[in-house]
Design a protein that fits this description.
Elements: H1 3-20, E1 25-28, H2 30-33, E2 39-47, E3 52-60, E4 70-80, H3 88-101, E5 106-109, E6 116-125, H4 130-150, H5 152-160, H6 165-169
Antiparallel strand pairs: 1-2, 2-3, 3-4, 4-6, 5-6
Length: 175
């Protein structure tokens, strides 16, 4: 099986498992949608402390020339695409402070200041057998969903202006 087919099969298996758990999931195929790679898109309802509806995208990053024997699986949980411009500075500070305490992955804000997301990328050795490979990808997805949810509610409130940076800071460990 080619590496491309292997990755698509993994995404199809994830899609089937999520769909069986009643999580809407669509596999968007590279050749059908003019994408740089296949992307598994899911709709996550009741996410975070506010039970928001957010989307997730899961995919294997295209490899740079010279990258051999490893691939990178990416999980991106898009929390919102509308950050109040007056709250952007506070959101960026909160993201930086929260990221200091995260064990893996990171909250991110795009260059335009619109998208607030949680992102996690995991390197995976391609020499793994199918079950090890799948287990690593599945673990990445589960960890991304769990870690991204931890501060989603408060960050969304901050992005809307419904709470302050101090409210976020109160949730972080203090020495």
């Amino acid at each position: 099986m080619s590496e491309k087919d292997r990755k698509r099969t993994i995404l199809e298996r994830l899609q089937a498992e999520l769909t069986a758990e009643e999580v809407p999931a669509i596999l968007r195929k590279k050749e059908e949608e003019d994408l740089p790679m296949d992307v598994l898109t899911v709709l996550l309802t009741e996410y975070g402390s506010r039970q928001d509806e957010v989307s997730g995208e899961f995919y294997f990053l295209p490899l740079a020339n010279g990258a051999e024997h490893v691939c990178y699986f990416s999980s991106v949980i898009s929390l919102t695409e509308t950050i109040d411009p007056q709250c952007l500075g506070a959101v960026c500070i909160a993201v930086a402070m929260i990221n200091f305490y995260l064990e893996y992955g990171a909250y991110v804000v795009d260059a335009e200041g619109n998208l607030l997301a949680y992102k996690m990328v995991t390197p995976i050795f391609e020499e793994m057998d199918e079950e090890q490979f799948y287990a690593t990808v599945d673990m990445n997805l589960a960890h991304a969903l769990d870690a991204g949810e931890q501060f989603a509610g408060i960050l969304l409130k901050l992005a809307e202006g419904a709470c302050s940076l101090d409210d976020v800071m109160d949730l972080l460990p203090h020495d």
